[in-house]
Amino acid sequence: MEDNIYVSHIPVLLDASLELLQIAPGGSYFDGTFGFGGHSRAIAALGGCVTATDRDPAAVATEGIRLVHSSFAEFLANDVSRYDGMLFDLGVSSMQLDDASRGFSFSKDAPLDMRMDTSREFSAYDIVNGWDEDELARIFYAYGEERYGRQIARRICERRQYTPIATTLELTEFIKGHPKRVFQALRIAVNDELGELERMLKLAPERLKPGGRLAIISFHSLEDRLVKHAFRDDERLKALTKHPVTASEAELKTNPRAASAKLRAATLV
After folding, report:
1. How many Å apart are CA 265 and CA 72, to the nearest integer?
2. Residue extents of the structural domains in the chain
């Protein structure tokens, strides 16, 4: 696939990530969240040898990059390689957000899906129409930090008694004022994003060469908190960032999606 397909994609915190990873020609690097491949291609352009993963079958490899369709934690659990640097750009990708049919957006009508890996059967539809009120309230509070999670869960359970809630706008219609947090919670639950992150944080240091670097970009406090604590508490790692790196005003003008991005990095001691 030609590079011009990816021209409109702007990787988040690209320069800061490359600087913290200290890309060296001939070095080996792992990109755990390939997406449109912006970070991977930038590493390869600097002479790095890149292995990448993405659990979305829609992700397509670019020349010179080895792409494996897998979750990053599953891949690392079976990988025996050692890398000079590892990068993880967490959360939903631009590729998934921009495709309305995937159901990640609360402002565009689509089936209630939200699967990053479309080969899996379990989707947001199953949660919204199958989980009981307590479970719904739990994830809205725990994953969406939504203080009205109990009331929203109750409304969902009352509504679905008459007919299943099948689309994003059907769900959005009766949770006005709260869709962003609710959709975040559903997406995290569908894809087990926090469990995937926790598994990766345990495995990644084992896949680094001595002095190798680990950089992680997160987009909400739940992810950032896990990364911060891992870099502080894991004796194998030494944090390189006392505070998270955020987007500059210049980057925000060209890439508003970078507004909530936080980059932390650590090195294997």
Report:
1. 17
2. 3-95+194-268, 101-192
Taking each helix axis from N to C terminus, what angle separates 179-191 and 193-203, rounded to the nearest 10 degrees?
A: 50
- The answer for residues whose C-beta is within 8 angstroms of residue 56's C-beta and 6 or more apart is 35, 69, 93, 95, 96, 116, 117, 118
Q: Which CATH architecture has domain 101-192?
A: Orthogonal Bundle (1.10)
pLDDT value at residue 262:
98
Question: In whole angstroms, what is the distance from residue 5 CA to residue 223 CA?
Answer: 30
CB-neighbour burial class of residue 92 (10 A; exposed 0-12, middle 13-18, buried 19+): buried
Contact call for residues 65 and 40 (beta carbons, < 8 A): yes
pLDDT of res. 121: 94
